[in-house]
Structures are given as C-alpha cells and as structure tokens.
C-alpha cells in the first residue's frame, strides 16, 4: 500500500494580524478534509505574533483532528519569528525540506 501524498497549501506573503481572519478561515477549510496537509511558507515575508499564533492553532487543531500537518519552505521571516518567540525547537520537527 502506498502512502497518500499530502495536500500543499501555499500561504500568502503576509501572515500578520491584518490577514489573520482570512488565513484562519483558509486553514480551517484546509483541515476539514482531514487529509495530510503541508503548509508551504516559502512566500511568507512578513509574520507577526498573530501569524505565529495561527500556525500554532493549526498545529493543535490538526492534532486534535488526527491530521498530519507539516510545515515547508521556512522563509527567513518565519525562522526569525519562531526564534524570537522561542518556538523554533518546538516547531522544528514539523518542518520538511521544500525541495
């Protein structure tokens, strides 16, 4: 039996409080299918604490739903935000190579 490929959701460049409501709904919609999901953060060039909170909420929600969730394409902005908030070690296991 072969493993199913994860769906990929590429997030917009802005992951901030100004886009939080729209991104939140996009994430919830993507998790409804209960299929493995990869969030591609390659294009994210601006992220604030609201954006990080959305990602953490998606991780928790996916876990509660039994959905495999991975993060890919960790841009410099994403890495810096995670490091600044002390979350890089916590979220590092979820990162995969974007290649």
UniProtKB/TrEMBL annotation:
InterPro entries: MlaB-like_STAS, MlaB_ABC_Transporter, STAS_dom, STAS_dom_sf
Gene3D superfamilies linked to this entry: STAS domain
Coiled-coil features, chain-numbered ranges: none
Boundaries of every STAS domain copy: 8-99
Protein name, UniProt field: STAS domain-containing protein
């Amino acid at each position: 039996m072969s493993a199913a490929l994860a769906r990929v959701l590429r997030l917009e460049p802005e992951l901030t409080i100004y886009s939080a409501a729209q991104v939140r709904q996009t994430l919830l919609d993507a998790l409804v299918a209960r299929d493995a999901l990869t969030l591609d953060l390659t294009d994210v060039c601006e992220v604030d604490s609201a954006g990080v909170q959305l990602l953490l909420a998606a991780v928790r929600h996916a876990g509660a739903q039994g959905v495999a969730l991975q993060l890919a394409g960790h841009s410099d902005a994403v890495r810096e935000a995670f490091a600044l908030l002390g979350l890089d070690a916590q979220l590092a296991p979820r990162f995969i190579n974007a290649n």
